[in-house]
Amino acid sequence: MTFKSFHPPVRTLMGPGPSDVNPRVLAAMSRPTIGHLDPVFVDMMDEMKGLLQYAFQTRNALTLPVSAPGSAGMETCFVNLVQPGDTVVVCANGVFGGRMKENVERCGATPVMVEDEWGKPVDPQKLEDALKAHPQASTVAFVHAETSTGACSDVKTLTDIAHRHGCLVIVDSVTGLGGVELRVDDWGVDAIYSGSQKCLSCTPGLSPVSFNEAAVERIKSRKHKVQSWFLDLSLVMGYWGGGTKRAYHHTAPINALYALHESLVVLQEEGLENAWARHRAQHEALKAGLDTMGLNMIVAPEHRLPQLNAVKVPAGVDEAAVRKLLLDEFNLEIGAGLGPLAGKVWRIGLMGYGANRKNVLFCLGALETALVAQGADIVPGRAVAAARAVYGA
Ligand SMILES: Cc1ncc(COP(=O)(O)O)c(C=O)c1O
Fold first, then answer.
1. Are 77 and 209 contacting, i.e. CB atoms less than 8 angstroms apart?
2. Measuring CA to CA, which residue among 175, 173, 165 is closest to residue 191?
């Protein structure tokens, strides 16, 4: 059998990620591959660190992209900061808290779960109670922007509570970074990881991470070797550590790093606060359109992530058929619900480059069509008009 080159369709990605990639980022990726110790590449790595520090709002020296997806960033935080025998309080209000628990267990540590209903933010009082009940805990882990539900948790408040109980925090901001306010230094976050494929609108497969001094001290004072050779930061830093002497650790994903560099340049050009405001504004327009179709969000307004809109599927509507029509006829991807929300919600992403007026209007128009096909009682055109009114058109 003769195989041919793979040519994917051109889709509009409005699910939970990956998001639409900025053409500038794809163009950067196709530039010539050079060696991972080439002095020009090493200069680019130094710039990348500065750009990531800006995106995270931190001065942390230990700030770099892990050469693997968000799950590897998560694992980097856990394997470096948690040791066998430790107790870790994990706040779970969606899929990713569950994945954190897995990480804790695989580090030989004991997770203490603080559970919140899916669609709600992490409850600070429950964290406080758990820490009082488990004074031996050394670490608290939680998700800033829960992609499975669209709920945003209060990083600063949760971090303050953890610190009052002598714990370091590990924060998942895979979907948060670049989309909503995040201030690593001002909020005292000890360790954080993100992903390239959400609000940075880069290709998937890289995970920016950052660790403050307290986290670095913990890593330095470990009694046990980090269980993962690849993710052991003391080894990774031989390559990413700065200065003139860089040693081979692994062959960096050179072209993917060009892509991340470009996406961070784009973010810096726009300005972080402008990017946060743009996500909010696009969400408001989308929401106005959804309202006209009687579609409701599962998250209360004050805890809603603008970049991830979890929308209740109305009674009598086949949620999978709607997604199929959008994909087949509009080349538009939106996400399904996960876990207890499977079949009950759609997840509409407005992330990074994809958080724009064209996508909002396109998605609303396509949804109107799909819902009419399902026999829903809606007036086509009203959703798009409502969103246009928000834009002042
Ligand atoms: C909140 C959150 N954490 C972690 C991950 C894992 O990232 P990845 O799929 O890039 O491994 C995701 C991916 O969607 C996520 O949304």
1. yes
2. 173
- Split at pLDDT 50, 70, 90, the class of 393 is confident
Q: Flag whether pLDDT at 20 surpasses 80.
A: yes
Q: For the purposes of burial, counting CB atoms within 10 Å of the CB of 383, is it exposed (0-12), middle (13-18) or buried (19 or more)?
A: buried
Nearby residues of 351 by Cβ (< 8 Å), 6 or more positions away: 17, 19, 20, 175, 179, 198, 199, 201, 279, 307, 308
Question: Does any ligand 1 atom lie closer than 6 A to the CB of residue 17?
Answer: yes
Q: Quick check: 233 and 77 in contact, CB under 8 A?
A: no
Q: At what angle do helices 233-240 and 213-220 cross, to 10 degrees?
A: 120
pLDDT tens by residue, 262-275: 999 999 999 999 99
Average pLDDT over residues 1-10: 96
Sign of CA dihedral 134, 138, 144, 148: negative
Tell how far the Cα of 375 is from the centroid of ligand 1, in angstroms: 35
pTM of this prediction?
Answer: 0.98
Do 131 and 161 touch, CB atoms closer than 8 A?
yes
**CB distance 98 to ligand 1 below 6 Å:** no
Which strand (E) or helix (H) includes residue 366? helix 357-373
Alpha carbon dihedral 349, 354, 358, 361, in 10-degree steps, equals 0
Tens of pLDDT, residue by residue over 111-148, are 999 999 999 999 999 999 999 999 999 999 999 999 99
Evaluate whether 344 touches 312 at the Cβ level (below 8 Å): yes
CA of 342 to the centre of ligand 1 (A): 17
Say yes or no: CB of residue 354 within 6 Å of ligand 1: no
Spatial distance between the Cα atoms of 278 and 288, rounded to a whole number of angstroms = 16
Q: Give CA–CA dist 69/355, Å, rounded.
A: 22
